[in-house]
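Sat 14:20. Reprocessing the chain from the morning session after the first attempt stalled halfway. Input below, unchanged.
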Amino acid sequence: MGIRTIRGGLTAVDGIQAAGLWAGIKPTGTPDLALIVSDRPAVAAGLFTRNQFQAPPLRLTRRHLRAGRLQAIIVNSGNANACTGAAGLRDAETMARDTARLLGLPVTHVAVASTGVIGVPLPIDRIRRALPRLAAALSVTGGRRAARAIMTTDTRPKEVALEARIGGKLIRIGGIAKGGGMVHPNMATMLAFLATDAPLAAPLLRRALAQAADQSFHAITIDDMSTNDLVLCLATGGAGGAAWRANGAAYRQFRLLLTEACHRLALQMVEDAEGGTKIIRITVQGAATAAQARVMALAVARSPLVKTAMYGEDPNWGRIMAAIGASGAAVRERDVSIAFGPVTAVRGGRSAGGAAERRAARVLRDRAIPVQITVGRGRGRATIWTSDLTDAYVRINAHYRT
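Finished this time. Tokens:
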């Protein structure tokens, strides 16, 4: 199966329209309200943050997803509508209800998402006034405008569009995402919206999305898990044909296509991390299990000391050793080796020498930095992508609300 990159982002999928505009939520005048619409009820699947304080839009969308069908997604940026109590839930319900009325849809076919500052009441009246203009702006070329309208601290929109021949049919998938901070595995503020014309039943789409996310959105970390993180995927069935079977080759190939789309969106988030200058790939191999490898890789990827060392282009491998030892995973010091790119700086838990460290420092000058950690002879392996921690990151988050 050959996967090809195509143009069009989310709206590269036939039957999907989108729009984005400024509704007055952000004081900057930049787009802050997006709408995505399918020309037919679509099979839908979603993944939600595991943060215990889920925002009202997510609780509402969970409820609407129970039937496994959606036809529209309304999204605002600039305000998370999180930690806003009963009023926040009413506002999310109003967004869904007004959108459904404008489009002539059942309210349960509308998903709602929000991203931005937590704890601030949503300016629902501004959103309601903007909705008719937003619906009128829907277009088969509107994916980029929708991608811009969901941005917060992102510096650029994030899009993907792919196609592949599967089961004798040309299958397309498109998506948009946002996220540069508050991104951490288990849905973590990141949002991603995908659409495909593949013929899938809801249980299979849910399974495919969960597996794709484990290898993409759950394999990146920038800082913390948010209250608003959400991934939604719509399958319109527009490519035609009977729904694929779970044990069929077509479904397996589609899962690869979906995983690739999610992976590309996830890496765009790491590349655009708040203040980031490096894209760091942490791979742990040789662990007893994949779960143990993942624990260690996440511990290294989340360490502020490791991330600041990467920013300073300092191959301070002691910080990586400390993170592994503190991870709680089963590992022996003498079994650990660490390489920066092609340069092994640590063997058997000990320094490979000053010359190796100097060569490693040259590797850290690059924007993309691979860090390979071997912890034994087991078959467990995991990869996590992260960014460095910079002065700019501190400035952005110190003044996020000012």
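Residues 182-188 have pLDDT under 50 and may be disordered.
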